[in-house]
Amino acid sequence: MVREEFAGADASERKAAGDKRSHDFLMQALAAERPQDAVLSEEGADDPVRLRSERVWIVDPLDGTLVEMGSAGAKVASIVQGLSDVYVHAGGQFEWDSAAPVAVARGAGLHTSRIDGSALLYNRADPKLPDVVVCRPELAEAVLAVTG
User: Is 46 annotated as a binding residue?
Assistant: First the structure.
C-alpha cells in the first residue's frame, strides 16, 4: 500500500511513511489491548506519564531505517545464532534501539550490560543509552575488562 501511494517518492519518503504507518498500527493495537500501558516510541511524542506507569512498551516500529549504522537487533541475533561472540556499542543509542534486542539476548541467556558492567536501565527520563554490551556469558569478564 505504501509502495503504491508513494511510487514517485524517494526512498527516505517511503521509509518515513512506512515508519509512520507501523507506529500508528502499534499505537492503536496497544491502546486497544493494553489501554493502561504507556508507550515510548521512536516515532511518537514522549509522554512523561510513562515514568510512573506500571508497564511501558518501548518500541521502534521499523528498526533499521538508518541502514549505515545497521540494526542492533541483527547484531544481537548474530550472537544468539552463534555466528558472533560480542556486540559493543559505545556511540550512544536510544532505549528503543536496544530494548527488544536486549530482551531477546537475555532470553537466550546472553550477558547484557553497559560497558562498565552496570545494568542496562530502561524507561528513564532521558531515553538515551550511552553504551551497551551483549556477549556470550563466558566472555563477559574478559570483554568488560577491556571496555570498562
Answer: no
